[in-house]
Amino acid sequence: MRVSIRTLGLVATIVGSALGAWWWTSQRGRSRRLRSLPPRDRGSVIFDNTPTAADADAII
Fold it and tell me: Could you tell me if residue 43 is left (phi over 0), alpha (psi between -120 and 50 degrees) or otherwise beta?
């Protein structure tokens, strides 16, 4: 079976891309574990402070 140079290049690109993606995600996960900050208080939901319209002000 004869494989062309173009096919070998395509396979090498796919394998290299997969290995690079695996390495990148493993490094990203490692930095998150090392950094591990406590969760921040993000405040209340914006709709909790929004006034509601009275029945008389409703548009029908």
Answer: left
